[in-house]
Amino acid sequence: MRSRWTGKSRAEIKADPILAIYREYYKRFGQNYHMQMQVESIALKGKSVPSRAALVEAIFMAELATGLLTAVHDLDQAVGSITIDRTTGDEHYTRYDGVDERCKTGDMAMRDEIGMLTSVIQGPTTHVRVTTERTNALFCLYASAGIGEELVRQHLALIADYVRLIEPGALIEDATILTA
Fold first, then answer.
1. 112 with 124: CB under 8 angstroms?
2. Residue 1 pLDDT > 70
3. Residue 11: CB partners within 8 Å, gap ≥ 6?
4. Is 86 in contact with 120 (CB distance < 8 Å)?
């Protein structure tokens, strides 16, 4: 991450094509791409990576390295089938930080049989939140149009590398890439 971003100006970071793709996606919903702000904070201001549950840190480090947005969920807490879709704007859920959230219309999202697991703009729900005790994880990378499959595969491999730093015996059971 530091080799990619250190020494870059805010304008150079903003001009990165991957960050630009997400910035445009977020802009449609009146939001700023939070990973761009995280990159700027760490690369330009020298902030450190926040300490969280190890699986969350693994995806965060991969996000900082590639710019790709990823979510991690406790797979053991998910109920039934998991689906991906666009939101209608009628969905409600309690976000990971306890805030009751209503989804924005047309956002990318993932659900189980209980309800929302995550949406890109609002973030993950509480019922599948990863904690330090969790070991069975579902990683979901949201790639907007223009982000190639090869970069997605590289990002997922990077997450696997980081997870194996935490737990050398970790197994990757599946790495399916779904496209709309």
1. no
2. no
3. none
4. no
For residue 151, is pLDDT > 90? yes
The residue whose two tokens read 């194996």 is 164
Token couple for 96: 């990971």
Question: What is the reported pTM?
Answer: 0.85
pLDDT in tens, 105-114: 999 999 999 9
Among 58, 50, 44, 57, smallest CA distance to 2 is for 44
* 141 touches 155 (CB < 8 A): yes
What does residue 25 show for φ and ψ, rounded to 5 degrees? -60, -50
What count of other Cβ atoms lies within 10 Å of the Cβ of residue 98?
7
Q: What is the Cβ-side half-sphere exposure of residue 135, based on CA atoms within 13 angstroms?
A: 8
Q: What is the DSSP letter of 95?
A: B
